[in-house]
Amino acid sequence: MTIEIREAGPDEYRAAGAVTAEAYREFAREGSADWVEYLARIEDVEGRAARTTILVAVDDGMIIASATLELEGRTDEDDDPLAPHEAHIRMLGVHPDARGRGVGRLLMAACESRAREAGRTAVSLHTTQRMRAAQRMYESLGYERGGDRVFPDGFVLLSYEKPLV
């Protein structure tokens, strides 16, 4: 397995967004306008690339996964700023056809490495209750549960954090 993890170039934003949205599509709540909007935001890599770091996993010239790393800027401009010691991982997605090969772990390791290089001492992320495989991966990588983020409609984001040593 020769998978390259690197920053996405502008000519790859569309492919990175499409792959990540496809990874999330199975978790969309049927008939939910919020999920339709969220999938569109996931696809819009270009819209967040100036504020964040977009990492991609490339296999045989094809993007098979991506992750958004927030070091300075936030994916959503209205989110609270990160603490000076913190990095945050968003929108990690592996195309369904590429799962089970350790690609998610490679992207997580690259995000953590970039965060350390930027002087961060902790990394955080959110996931959903339905993303059980992701939860298992995060926990196996040393992430611990933090407080949940509950939205007014009852949607819950599970919080995870990990100190970087």
> What coarse outline follows from CA principal-axis ratios?
globular
Report the CATH C-level class.
Alpha Beta
- Number of extended strands: 8
In terms of per-residue confidence, which ranges show pLDDT below 50 for 5 or more consecutive residues? none
Main attributes of the structure:
165 residues, alpha+beta, Aminopeptidase, eight-stranded mixed β-sheet, 5 helices
Task: Describe the protein's architecture and organization.
The protein has 165 residues and is an alpha+beta fold. It has one domain (3-163): Gcn5-related N-acetyltransferase (GNAT) (Aminopeptidase), CATH 3.40.630. The chain has 5 helices and 8 strands, in the order βαααβββαβαβββ. It has helices spanning 13-25, 33-43, 45-49, 103-117, 132-140; strands at 3-7, 53-59, 62-70, 86-94, 122-128, 144-145, 149-150, 156-163. Strands 1, 2, 3, 4, 5, 6, 7 and 8 form an 8-stranded mixed beta sheet that branches. α1 packs antiparallel against α2. The longest helix is centred in the middle third of the chain and has 15 residues, at 103-117. The model has no long low-confidence stretch (mean pLDDT 93).
